Amino acid sequence: MFDRLFKHYGPQHWWPGETPFEVMVGAILTQNTNWRNVEKAMNNLKHEGVLHPESLRIMPEGRLAALLKPAGFFNVKTKRLKAFLNFLHSRYGGSIDALRSTSTSKLREELLAIKGIGKETADSILLYALGHPIFVVDAYTYRVFTRHHLIGEEALYDELQDLATGHVPAEAEHYNEFHALLVRVGKDYCSPTPKCENCPLNGLNW
DNA sequence: GACCAGGCACATC
DNA sequence: GATGTGCATGGT
């Protein structure tokens, strides 16, 4: 599946964020939200010159919520982003570099303990912001895997993650590319109403 | 006007 | 443990 997708699409260059911190913010803002709307909110933050841990951390919630508006769920996401920023400040002194030196499993536990950060968001931060070798499961992953009967529809996050983990070289570069490719084929062909004609995955034998 | 978009926490049973 | 619900904007 990986080979077929990579040959068809080529490298996807994920995550579309310029800095690790930007990726982390994007991971929270994109929860159940189209990336285009996330970009609008991110641009609001950039134009205000506040896309930095401390700027956002000390910003009044009302002002932050207004800037996050295009991303939807803006009141909820304001709380969640604040919770993450407070964690970054209190536990790591606001330093991304300090974050880097933490082990994958320890940091994942810490992220999951933050209210508003679940498994997908934690794993997205680990992989796409910090380069840890971990596979990110999302709605597209679920759709592609279940439609191809690689796993049952009742499968949970960890089961999808384990399935991918067991079949992809254990390197961040591969987890990064595989997830991005799954999202790409999901958007193009494996949408809620599938359009399987011309799908690059046609004809594969599992 | 309906449906969808790179979730998560919380209440309830 | 499983299921249902609120959160909200913007594109198609």
Protein described:
The protein folds into two domains: 65 residues, no CATH class; 110 residues, Endonuclease III, domain 1. The chain is an all-alpha fold. It contains twelve helices and no strands.
Structural features:
mainly alpha, 2 domains, 12 helices, globular, DNA-binding
Largest sheet: none
Point out poorly predicted stretches.
Answer: none
Q: CATH architecture of the largest domain, please?
A: Orthogonal Bundle
- What gross morphology would you assign? globular
Helix content: 55-70%
Through-space gap between termini = 9 Å
Mean pLDDT figure: 95
Can you tell me the CATH class of the largest domain? Answer: Mainly Alpha
In short:
The chain is an all-alpha fold. 60% of the residues lie in helices and 0% in strands.
Topology:
Layout: H1 2-9, H2 20-29, H3 35-47, H4 53-58, H5 61-68, H6 74-92, H7 96-100, H8 104-112, H9 119-129, H10 139-147, H11 157-165, H12 172-188
This protein binds a DNA duplex (13 and 12 nucleotides) through residues 27-28, 30-38, 40-41, 69-77, 80, 115-121, 124, 136, 138-141, 179, 183, 186-187, 191-192.
